[in-house]
Amino acid sequence: MRHSNDPITLSLFDLLKAGPGPSSSHTIGPMAAGADFARRAAALAPEIQAAAGGLRVRLLGSLSATGKGHGTGPAVVGGLTGCPPDACAPSLLRRAADPHAASLFLTLPKGRNIPLGPRNIEYGPIRHKHPFNNTLIIELLDASYPPQRDGPDSPVCGAEREGRRPPPPPDGPVQSSVDAAAAGGNVLFSVEYYSTGGGFIRWKGMKREKQRKPPHPYADMKEFKARCAESGLGLDELLMENETALTGKSPADIVAELDNMLGIMRDTVLRGCAAAGTLPGSIGLRRKAAVLHERARSLAPFDRALCLFNAYAYAAAEENAAGGLIVTAPTCGASGVVPAVLLFMEEQLGLDLKARRRGLAAAALIGFIAKHNAGIAGAEVGCQGEIGVASAMAAAMLAHARGFSVQVVENAAEIALEHHLGLTCDPVGGYVQIPCIERNAVGAITAYNAALIACNENPVSHKVSYDEVLRAMAEIGRDMNAKYKETAGGGLAVCLVEC
Ligand code: SF4
Asked: Is 128 in contact with 165 (CB distance < 8 Å)?
């Protein structure tokens, strides 16, 4: 599933994104699509805005199959109010899910504001002809599409409160038409979006952005190691030079952003360790992190260490399941693994901020290469691409933070991923809870063990490369039946319900 032979041009903060859980492809991506549509709609010609009277969102593929459990509808609606994922308050998504809430609107400066709510969402076919499984089509409709209701402006979201200006509408073709839609309403303007995992979105007709070139180009681990050897730079130094060239940001700004991500991940774990009660959804799953955290205190040292790992990973994963603010690493569903290892590095291993920051850069490198050469979305390659890659990222992070060589970092990531190969995505009831929460804990402990093995073996005697294990993951992902790719149509999702 290698997407291109071109060099990787992702920013650290394309991969490490803050946003609401529980699923990067089902909440953060769709919310980003909604916010993107809101920007485009506000810039439409006045006559189109004046004719608008309704809005429809059609969810297809896995977004339709498990969108209700993942909160995809409220996420798109939240985005359509103009709020980007990293500024989303949980209260916005609660209101977006409430059919009786009457205060959310798509703002059209040259027309009427369009009321938003669950009624704007249609759950379409799971199998479809569009090029990516997670497809959503957002349509601005004329006044013949019910319901019509005038209202006040959309509420101010976090970004606007903080004085941040929403980005301008992106370039790229969109569709503006007067086709009569089967379910009523003439389509004035529509965009077909793809949520490609990790909170990334693309849209039909999207042009390749003119990318700045990285000074140290690489498309896989082998090339990355070659660039390190040629330049004499360390792993995080090379990534920093690429990041400054790709984003135009100063090293100080990049460090500040990395520290912000570290802080959000730490807060997510601490919030989760202090929370109690039942997670949203029909499963009625009770939170466990606080109990595990409390019990860990009374255990013998070895058990205590493992139990703390579990508590930290549960905490972040439960926060994700509850729709709290998390950082994709590489996705929402797997967002407990890296924070659990990070807090363990800080509290139990005494690794300082500088070491943790360096480690986070190594984690991002491993995520970049996985995304570029195989995939990180459960809907694309199954859970091996989510928890498996998260575990590889965390193993690499620990090895690099402890000062080991790039070869050891690679070996740690490879070991962690190798033992997640073939892992299916089969969330029970479509909720990112069973098996996801427990799986984060298992992935975090596997990461620690993988780093332990890699840091204590002879690095050059290691037989399997990270590029090779990614090739295997891509091939397995290609062969994996669609029912094991985030559709809740097979595996545990079916057996648990039937048994
Ligand atoms: S099973 Fe894995 S890939 Fe699927 S939703 Fe859960 S964490 Fe994500």
From this structure: no
Rounded to two decimals, what is the model's pTM? 0.82
Number of H helices, E strands in the chain: 21, 9
For ligand 1, say whether the CB of 474 is within 6 Å of any of its atoms.
Answer: no
CA of 406 to the centre of ligand 1 (A): 29
**DSSP 8-state class, residue 134:** S
> What tens digit of pLDDT does each residue of 75-125 get?
999 999 999 998 887 788 889 998 887 689 999 999 999 999 999 999 999
Partners of residue 192 on adjacent β-strands = 137
Query: What is the C-alpha separation between 104 and 202, in angstroms, rounded?
Result: 25
Closest protein CA for atom 4 of ligand 1: 425
Tell how far CA 304 is from the center of its chain: 30
- Quick one: average pLDDT of 379-387? 94
Determine the average pLDDT of the residues in 151-155: 38
> In 344-465, where do the E strands start and end?
none
Choice from 383, 389, 434, 484 to test ligand 1 binding pocket (greatest atom count within 8 A of CB): 383
Mean pLDDT over each residue of the chain, to the nearest integer: 89
pLDDT 10s digits, 156-176:
344 433 333 333 434 343 443
The H or E element spanning position 201 is strand 200-203
Taking the C-alpha atoms of residue 422 and residue 377, their distance in angstroms, rounded to an integer, is 14
Cα end-to-end span (Å), the chain: 35
Q: Give the closest residue to 197 by CA, choosing from 261, 267, 113, 135.
A: 135
Q: Running DSSP on this structure, what letter comes out for residue 277? A: S
Question: Which of these, 188, 202, 81, lies nearest to 134 by C-alpha position?
Answer: 202
Q: Where are the domains of the chain?
A: 22-197, 213-498
Q: What's the full length of the chain, in residues? A: 499
Q: What is the CA(426)–ligand 1 centre distance, in A? A: 7
Nearest-CA residue for ligand 1 atom 8 is: 333
Q: Is the CB of 425 under 6 A from ligand 1?
A: yes
Q: Which amino acid is at 234?
A: G
- Could you tell me the distance, in angstroms and rounded to a whole number, from the CA of residue 239 to the centre of ligand 1? 29
Distance 251 CA to ligand 1 centre (A): 34
CATH topology of domain 22-197: 60s Ribosomal Protein L30; Chain: A; (3.30.1330)
Q: Which of 323, 476, 329, 466 is nearest to 406 (CA)?
A: 466
- Provide φ and ψ at 468, rounded to 5°: -70, -45
